[in-house]
Specification:
The complex is a heterodimer of chains A (368) and B (412).
Chain A (H helix, E strand, L loop, with lengths): L7 H17 L2 H9 L3 H23 L7 H43 L6 H16 L3 H25 L17 H5 L25 H29 L11 H7 L11 H31 L5 H17 L3 H37 L9
Helix pairs in contact in A: 1-6, 1-8, 1-10, 3-8, 4-5, 4-10, 4-11, 4-12, 5-10, 5-11, 6-10, 10-11
Chain B lengths: L1 H23 L11 E11 L5 E8 L16 E8 L2 H11 L3 E3 L5 E5 H6 L2 H8 L9 E5 L3 H6 L9 H7 L15 H9 L6 E6 L35 E9 L2 E6 L1 H10 L5 E7 L7 E19 L2 E14 L11 H30 L6 H5 L6 H7 L1 H4 L4 E12 L6
Parallel strand pairs in B: 1-4, 1-5, 5-6, 6-7, 12-13
Antiparallel strand pairs in B: 1-2, 2-3, 7-8, 8-9, 10-11, 11-12
Helix pairs in contact in B: 4-7
Classes of the chains: A mainly alpha (368), B alpha/beta (412).
């Protein structure tokens, strides 16, 4: 798996599927409850900061061509730091994948499968993850690329089909809860772009540095655009979104779609597409977890680990008792973990590794 | 590539097996439509011995099959229960009838005026939270009891009562005398801090008006609400006419059919209507004018000396419906005069309507607040302004621009 090379499109697809799932799984709700009517402005602001951050990452990776965060950790702090970084990322992927899986399953249960036990719904996804991951990350990324246009089309269709229902007054007052809330406290909304975690592991999987730069920039810009339109759509459609705790806003938006009196109730089709999107996202997250584990443990057969991860995800996803707990984890824990791990810890490793490299002779130093 | 092909093969096999499994065997634990009782109308009244009296109208099983005689309305079943809440009522009814109640085909939710006066916020939140209830389900406030409204709602031109309920609100497209008030629009206005909701005004028991109350002025012909429609011959006792005005979740007043047109114009829902104005060229005669949508109404709201000031610019197209001998002398100058007459008539009537919503109802049903909100920097400033209490201080100004296009077959 370590020798897998992804095309630029496949790599961009991996980042986009995560951001799409954040949109489906209502991360926009947390953003709107944080920054209110200024959420669209906030997304533009943090989008610019994110682009600068990604540019900074590209700069930091420049001296470590074809190496991911694990290799760089090993260079900086030896095997121990590599294992620590690997465990942190595996925990991050496994725990939050489980929580998002449970969150989506609960939503499915509320909407259509109210008589089906949650363990069965979750099990359906676990089977899919296990089955797909046996085929490897290359297959997952190719299939992901195959379904991504359909998912993107559906999301854009939901945005466009609701045009007559939009009321852009929902974007006012422009500064929402105030300047401080929008531009300083609102920085915590960067957690929605946790898809950049993929970028830390992409360098060895892509052709060269140029490809990595292209992938990082394009995927970030597309993620910001997608989230911006999502937030504008939700704020314009639902005045209650600022004060209530609704389930998937994207699903609610699909309920509003109708073309005359004959084409109504299209939401079931969209729910099927969202389900495929969630499966793809789960597969990507597990594939990266396996990839990390392989790197820190040097195992060759990853089947055992796959079953193990699938089991852990299944158990963790069933721990929380209700949606309120899941919302609490999403809003109060996920936000800070993303900040600490993706924007703090990982960038610090890259910075110190760059300093170490410069002190040891810069570009001429050989890294094993 | 090999792995992808293998995966696609597996996927194909999986799909074929799934299709075969589900198509060749019955889903033993899944409910089929035969196990469900579909509610087409839900009525909510104040209860006598409990909080609510819940009425449901169910379609009779197989009522739309080919064996039913054409032209004969399909039978419906009406059941009522006294209950503490909507959900407990449905549960009680479920234990009474032989099938499980399903609300996914519910077309209207009828509240009695009595319960609406007390507030229907809790019921609206409950119903909005139901996955089965569609966002386009209409909300009707009945001047009689909701049960009476549902009982007397007997379709005359359709076989299916569900279709009757579905089509009736669409009359707002060619009359403007009601609004297409859905549960989603009601809930959105209720939950926003810058607007108040409206609903369709209905009546389930035709009022017998004393002759003194019957309007004789042509301009007042449409100043009537549900129950006052001067129908001479009618079979169905229920009707919808006018708009029920809410201040948050409480019913505070009614708009007549004509005021409903003004509400539609100001909220950009207007399509067409017919009005009558006094004929300036002939005594004791009126001119009928068909008004059509031309452009969206532009509402500009700002704060002047701390008070809200709203300027509405309305653009309409018109056609003259009344043609007689005197129409031959309708020169371009006279058409211009007539346009001025229509404009000033509408400006006065709309101003009167807007002040009525502000001073009498104190309910912002035309979305003035959402236009004004852009003048505030943040949500704290807006909530401190207390729009709900300040709407009554609003000053209005209206400019109507009507273009008389032409008449119909005979014109000047």
């Amino acid at each position: 798996m370590n020798n897998v090379k992804l095309s630029n499109l496949e790599a961009i697809g991996l980042v986009l599927i995560i951001i799409i799932n954040h949109l489906i799984l209502n991360f926009s709700k947390s953003i709107i409850s944080n920054t209110g009517s200024a959420s669209a402005l906030n997304i533009l602001f943090i989008g610019i900061i994110l682009l600068l951050f990604v540019q900074f990452l590209i700069f930091l990776f420049k001296h470590f061509s074809g190496q991911d965060i694990l290799d760089i950790s090993e260079y900086l702090g030896g095997k121990a730091l590599k294992i620590l970084t690997g465990i942190l990322f595996i925990s991050y992927y496994i725990v939050f994948t489980s929580i998002l899986l449970r969150s989506f399953s609960e939503n499915l249960k509320i909407i259509y499968l109210n008589k089906l036990p949650i363990i069965i719904i979750v099990l359906f996804f676990i089977f899919s993850i296990t089955f797909a991951n046996k085929l490897g990350i290359k297959t997952i990324s190719k299939v992901n690329l195959l379904i991504l246009p359909v998912i993107l089309f559906c999301i854009i269709f939901v945005f466009i089909a609701n045009i007559k229902n939009y009321d852009f007054h929902g974007l006012f007052p422009l500064l929402g809860s105030g300047v401080k809330q929008t531009f300083i406290i609102g920085l915590s909304n960067m957690f929605a772009f946790s898809s950049i975690s993929i970028l830390y592991f992409l360098p060895p999987m892509v052709r060269d540095d140029k490809s990595f730069k292209k992938i990082a920039r394009i995927s970030t810009i597309l993620s910001v655009i997608l989230f911006f339109f999502g937030i504008v759509c939700f704020l314009s459609l639902f005045p209650f979104i600022r004060n209530s705790k609704e389930i998937m806003a994207l699903y609610l938006a699909t309920r509003y779609i109708e073309f005359g009196r004959f084409f109504q109730r299209l939401d079931a089709i969209f729910l099927l597409v969202w389900t495929v999107a969630v499966i793809s996202y789960l597969c990507v997250a597990v594939a990266f977890s396996i990839n990390i584990f392989k790197k820190i443990s040097n195992i060759t057969d990853y089947n055992g680990i796959l079953y193990c991860f699938a089991g852990i995800i299944y158990i963790i996803s069933l721990i929380s008792t209700d949606l309120a707990q899941l919302n609490y984890i999403e809003i109060n824990i996920f936000k800070y973990v993303v900040f600490i791990l993706l924007f703090g810890y990982s960038s610090l490793i890259l910075i110190f590794a760059n300093i170490k490299k410069r002190l040891r002779g810069g570009k001429n130093e050989k890294i094993t | 590539m090999k792995k992808l092909r293998k995966f696609l093969l597996y996927f194909l096999v999986f799909c074929i097996i799934s299709i075969l499994v589900f198509s060749l065997s019955g889903c033993y634990s899944t409910q089929s439509i035969d196990d469900l009782a579909y509610v087409v109308a839900l009525g909510i009244d104040l209860g006598k011995s409990n909080n609510l009296e819940l009425t449901i109208q169910l379609t009779f099983p197989n009522s739309s099959d080919s064996t039913s005689t054409s032209g004969e309305a399909a039978p419906t079943i009406i059941n009522s229960v006294e209950c503490a809440s909507i959900n407990s009522g449905i549960s009680l009814l479920n234990s009474y009838i032989s099938k499980e109640i399903n609300l996914s085909h519910c077309k209207v939710i009828v509240f009695s005026e009595e319960i609406a006066n007390k507030g229907i916020g809790q019921e609206i939140y409950t119903l909005s939270n139901q996955v089965q209830i569609r966002p386009d389900c209409n909300i009707i406030i009945s001047k009689s009891s909701a049960k009476e409204y549902i009982t007397n709602s007997k379709p005359e031109l359709e076989n299916l009562v569900a279709k009757y309920y579905e089509l009736t609100p669409y009359s707002n497209q060619y009359t403007g005398h009601i609004v297409n008030a859905t549960i989603s629009s009601f809930f959105n206005s209720l939950s926003a801090n810058y607007s108040d909701p409206v609903a369709i005004l209905g009546n389930g028991n035709k009022l017998k008006l004393p002759s003194s109350q019957k309007t004789t002025e042509a301009e007042d012909e449409f100043n009537i609400v549900a129950g006052q429609n001067p129908l001479v011959t009618y079979n169905r006792e229920s009707e919808n006419l006018g708009v029920a005005v809410f201040k948050q979740d409480k019913l505070v007043g009614e708009l007549t059919a004509l005021e409903s047109v003004f509400h539609s114009i100001l909220t950009n829902q207007f399509e067409s209507t017919v009005i009558s104005v006094d004929n300036p060229y002939k005594e004791n005669s009126v001119i009928d004018i068909a008004l059509y949508y031309h452009k969206d109404t532009k509402m500009d709201s700002k704060l002047v000396n701390g008070s809200p000031y709203v300027n509405s610019k309305i653009y309409l197209n018109a056609r003259l419906l009344s043609v007689d001998k005197s129409s031959e002398s309708l020169t371009p100058n006279k058409i211009k005069e007539l346009e001025g007459l229509i404009n000033s008539y509408l400006e006065n009537a709309i101003l009167e309507y807007q002040y009525k919503t502000a001073k009498i109802f104190e309910a912002d049903i035309d979305g003035v607040g959402k236009n004004l909100i852009k003048n505030f920097k943040n949500e704290k400033q807006w909530s401190n302004y207390n729009w709900s209490a300040n709407y009554k201080n609003t000053f209005f100004d209206v400019q109507v621009t009507t273009n008389i296009k032409s008449s119909f077959l005979l014109s000047s």
